[in-house]
Write a structure and sequence with these properties.
With 647 residues, this protein is α/β, with parallel strands linked by helices. It folds into 2 domains: 239 residues, 3-Layer(aba) Sandwich (Rossmann fold), CATH 3.40.50.300; 232 residues, Nucleotidyltransferase, domain 5 (2-Layer Sandwich). The chain has 18 helices and 31 strands. Strands 3, 4, 5, 6, 7, 8, 9, 10, 11, 15, 16, 17, 18 and 19 form a 14-stranded mixed sheet that branches. It has a 7-stranded mixed sheet with strand order 27-26-25-20-21-22-28. Helix 3 packs parallel to helix 4, helix 15 packs across helix 17 and helix 16 packs across helix 17. The longest helix has 18 residues. The termini are far apart.
Length: 647
């Protein structure tokens, strides 16, 4: 059968029409889609026109659109384009990935304002989204102030976050919490907003939870808590245009050698940045070029430039499931370093204004007054030890913390006057299942490690204390019982105010082991006082250069605060961040030292500098606890003695 030209053309038209429904757009990352399609509307932007992602925004946008990443937390300051980024994400998921979405604001009125000022202008001004909105400008059941339904059957819900009812019934693929830190922490007694909202994702093939906010109070800020719990916590690193060293852009302040500086202490005519590594002077105009070559690095060493590919030690690795990003105003092209400095000078003498400046400019939570050592102070005083264990240190003890997926342990050396000066020797993390003995064998190998003393002697860990308060208490009991001869002690924390550092041991436990009660607040008060000692000597705590910022953050994770109990004020320690294992390990090491009770003078004499012994085995020893004095015999009381001394 021969077809006419007219019939052939008709068949082609029908084939094209039939295949058109199968056509899918080229898959694009969110940042690229936004650069092609998104638009800055007049109602909600200082400048109107096509969107162009700033370099620091690219990885965050792409992480939002990356199907392998389930949760994105953005701890941010003002002026970094956050609202525009989530509005672009809404448009992207509606048109490009065709997902159902739900966004919560802290209040109903904030939800209505967001829809009117951001969503509706975006639908009008972004052509690919407008094409899906035949109802635009009309009263229609698909076009409401809290709901939009597009012609591709995808839906967007926008609700206030105060009512528990606003978190029910909907099934979506993407949820947003705008200004999460301003939400009620407990929604009508049913739980935190992220717990209720993320329930709406159950059943989605590609669930996504996006949270963002300027922080509020430290310890109470919901966004900061979520960000600190993320698997990978990213900060923006930029190269110095002069020396090439990468660094986080930090405020620094007037009393720091690096950071934002200005020409006068009281006025700001010109501001610049001082490189942390070599003191290079960086001008504001150089920021854009630095940001083009910037990258995000996490606390574990993971690196990404674009939020699509992730690397560790130069090797490509799978994207993490949960991430957080911190970006503050100094990275932004929407303000200047000079303006940041001027804002600081206006706020510095007023605690209320300064709190607002810290939250909205630095993008950091505000810490209320309380006793605490700052992490960066510890980080800045790290030192190079002359040997693994310096001369004044004479005994090494270990503190061990057991977590659900790892064992963390610290080796601490003590010496000096009365043994109050301490040196962190090393901190180790052994990942694995604490219910399996192979992980505990790694702990044993670590305990039996040999450390080089500056005198030439070799020391091992003389005593170890292991906390029994976790989920693997039985395993700790068994391990301590097996290794009791090696001075491995089981301990349990006590929060009783004024409890002694180490109480009497008791075998009244399931493992029938000697279980020592530890006064954790007593130990932490001791540590707080020692961390405030500024010069080496009695009480000073030394840290080696090998430790990172995360370790210092963990060491300072708790703050001493006053609380009212039974009508009186007592002091206790409040945990300000999720991770505090470094601090706990130091507490346990102090307990091990107290139980060991070494003779510091005798050990110091034995380790005094001298010529190395011919037989090196003689220098490998365990310091012995000093012998307790023998108890005096008590005189037997006269059986006839009565109350008041009367016979």
């Amino acid at each position: 059968m021969r077809l006419t030209a007219q019939q052939t053309q008709a068949i082609k038209r029908h084939l094209r029409a039939g295949l058109r429904v199968l056509k899918r757009p080229e898959p694009l990352p969110l940042a690229e889609w936004a650069d092609r399609n998104f638009y800055l509307s007049a109602e909600s932007s200082y400048t109107q026109g096509p969107w162009k992602s700033d370099p620091y925004q690219v990885a965050i946008l792409n992480a939002m659109g990356n199907d392998d990443i389930v949760e994105v937390n953005w701890r941010k300051s003002a002026r970094v384009g956050y609202t525009k980024c989530i509005t672009a994400a809404i448009a992207y998921f509606a048109e490009h990935k065709q997902r159902n979405q739900m966004l919560w604001q802290p209040t109903d009125s904030a939800a209505a304002d967001f829809m009117q000022q951001h969503v509706q202008p975006t639908i009008r001004d972004v052509p690919v989204l407008r094409a899906l909105s035949p109802w635009i400008g009309k009263k229609h059941s698909d076009n409401k102030l809290d709901y939009k339904r597009f012609s591709n059957s995808r839906q967007l819900f926008v609700r206030g976050g105060k009512s528990a009812g606003n978190y029910r019934e909907k099934s979506v693929d993407v949820v947003y919490y705008d200004e999460l830190s301003k939400f009620d922490p407990d929604i009508e007694g049913e739980g935190p907003p992220t717990l209720l909202g993320d329930k709406r994702l159950e059943g989605s093939s590609f669930p996504k939870s996006i949270r963002g906010s300027t922080p509020t109070l430290k310890g109470e800020c919901q966004l900061s808590k979520a960000a600190d719990e993320a698997e990978e916590q990213f900060q923006r690193w930029l190269p110095c245009p002069h020396c090439g060293e990468y660094q986080i852009i930090e405020w620094g302040g007037p009393d720091c050698d690096y950071g934002i500086k200005w020409d006068s202490r009281e006025t700001v005519l010109q501001a610049y940045y001082v490189c942390k590594h070599h003191g290079c002077v960086i001008e504001q105009r150089e920021l854009a070029g630095m940001d083009e070559r910037g990258e995000y690095r996490s606390q574990t060493g993971m690196v990404t430039r674009d939020g699509l590919e992730f690397f560790r030690d130069g090797e490509k690795v799978p994207p993490p499931a949960t991430v957080s990003f911190h970006v503050w105003a100094a990275y932004s092209t929407r303000t200047t370093w000079g303006q940041i400095a001027r804002d600081f000078l206006r706020a510095k003498d007023d605690p209320v204004k300064l709190k607002g400046w810290v939250n909205t400019t630095l993008g950091e939570p505000w810490e209320e007054a309380g006793e605490r050592v700052e992490a960066h102070h510890l980080y800045m005083r790290r030192e190079h030890y002359p040997a693994q264990i310096p001369q004044r240190a004479v005994v090494v003890v270990g503190g061990v913390d057991v977590q659900d997926d790892r064992i963390e342990c610290s080796a601490w050396a003590f010496g000096g006057e009365h043994g109050t000066e301490s040196w962190l020797v090393e901190h180790q993390v052994f990942w694995g299942d604490p219910s399996r003995w192979d992980l505990w064998r790694r702990l044993t190998e670590w305990r039996q490690s040999v450390f080089n003393h500056e005198s030439g002697a070799r020391l091992r860990i003389s005593a170890t204390a292991i906390d029994t308060g976790g989920h693997y208490t039985d395993m700790v009991y068994k391990y301590c019982k097996q290794h009791a001869a090696e001075r491995v002690f089981a301990i349990k924390g006590s929060s009783t105010p004024g409890a002694p550092l180490v109480g009497r041991p008791s075998k009244n436990n399931k493992g029938a082991v000697n279980l020592f009660s530890i006064g954790t607040d007593t130990a932490k008060e001791m540590i707080l006082g020692r961390l405030q000692v500024s010069e080496p000597g009695a009480g000073y705590v030394h840290f080696p250069v090998e430790i990172d910022r995360e370790y210092c953050e963990q060491m300072t994770a708790e703050k001493r605060v006053p609380v009212r109990r039974n009508g009186r004020t007592v002091y206790t320690f409040k945990q300000m961040r999720p991770r505090n294992e470094a601090l706990d390990c130091y507490v346990y090491a102090l307990a091990a030292l107290e139980i060991l009770n070494p003779d510091f003078k005798a050990l110091a004499a034995k380790l005094a500098p001298r010529e190395p012994e011919p037989d090196e085995s003689e220098s490998l020893y365990y310091p012995q606890p000093q012998e307790s004095p023998k108890p005096r015999k008590r005189r037997r009381r006269n059986a006839a003695r009565k109350i008041g001394g009367l016979r």
